[in-house]
Amino acid sequence: MRVEAYSAYVSAVRVLNGQLWKLFDELTAPEGSPAVWKDCLFEMHQCWVGLSATASRVSMIGPTAVATEAELLHHAMREWHVLCSEWARTAIRVGCPPQEDQETRFREAADAKRIRIASFRKPLVRRYAPTPDVTNGALGATRRVLAHGHQDSRIS
What is the pLDDT of residues 71-90, one digit of tens each? Predict the structure, then answer.
């Protein structure tokens, strides 16, 4: 159950990440329009809802080290989301995106997310690191040795 929650969370982070970069591309495109920015903003908010739901699930199932890292990643994603929301709302209201330091701030927030996702994944890699599947010899087949000592024979 934990592995599925962690995977869903990482997937939701990636989906929101993609939407934030899409908004960035639209806001920095020379022929952007308020209608497109508004659509991107709506899609970004939908992705945020999915991310928040999966973050809550990870926080509830733990363990504490993973829940803490998930919360820190969620916070970094929130800061990036808020930055992009403000940038898009200003662009929609004014009719053109402000370019002062927005691109720099966007990239800094993206970098902060990268650091947090790496930190989130560290305890998972230690806990659920793949080991070679010596029973069937198939290329790419692995077993996950779970923290409680049992083996999960699902092929990853």
Answer: 999 999 999 999 999 999 99
Is 144 or 51 the better-scoring residue by pLDDT?
Answer: 51
Asked if pLDDT for residue 153 goes beyond 60, the answer is: no
5: its two tokens = 């929650």
Residue with tokens 């994944």: 121
The identity of residue 88, as a single letter, is A
H or E element, residue 141: none
Q: Which pLDDT does position 34 carry in this prediction?
A: 93
SS3 of residue 142 by DSSP = strand
Q: Cite the beta strand spans of the chain per DSSP E.
A: 130-132, 142-145, 151-152
User: Residues of the chain with pLDDT > 70: what percent?
Assistant: 78
Structural tokens at position 27: 């806001």
**CA distance linking residue 2 with residue 62, whole number of Å:** 8
Residues 6+ apart with CB under 8 A from 153: 133, 143
Closest to 46 (Cα-Cα) out of 74, 6, 71, 15 = 15
Q: Which domains does the chain have, with CATH numbers?
A: 2-127 (1.20.120)
